[in-house]
Amino acid sequence: AYAPLDAPVPLACVVSIAMPNLNPRVRDAPTEMFSEPRAYNSALCERWRAALHAACLCGVTDVVCPDAGCGVYQNQPAAVGAALSQVLRAEYADRFESVWVVGSGPLFF
């Protein structure tokens, strides 16, 4: 459990992105197939790039990035995190004061 904050923290925005669905058992979203790891990484980077660009347009100072797509869509947390890191370092290195990466599972504990 987390201790409550003394006061609410106002949010500048909430950005929602759809990560690739790699799970053929999910029926309400098309399954994406990638011919090679580079294409998969590129797809992940494009999504993170869009999310971070939207955050910049809203003037945020801090971003919270979840383990997007790592649940039912079965994306690998290491691949999602590597793509986020790649985009942050190459294009947004000095843009945010803090980047918070949150999730569940063995990579976060």
Keywords:
single chain; two-stranded parallel sheet; mainly alpha; 109 residues
Note down, in words, how this protein is organized.
The protein has 109 residues and is mainly α. Helix content is 33%, strand content 7%. The protein has two helices and two strands; from the N terminus they run αβαβ. Strands 1-2 form a two-stranded parallel sheet. The longest helix is centred in the middle third of the chain and has 21 residues, at 37-57.
Query: What average pLDDT do the residues reach?
Result: 93
Distance between the termini: 14 Å
User: Can you tell me the overall shape?
Assistant: globular
Radius of gyration over all CA atoms, rounded: 15 Å
Secondary structure: helix percent: 25-40%
Largest sheet: 2 strands, parallel
Q: Would you tell me the structural class of the helices and strands?
A: mainly alpha
Beta-strand percentage?
Answer: 5-15%
Stretches where pLDDT is under 50 for at least 5 consecutive residues are: none
The strand line-up of the biggest sheet is: 1-2
Helix-strand string:
HEHE
Number of helices: 2
Number of strand segments: 2
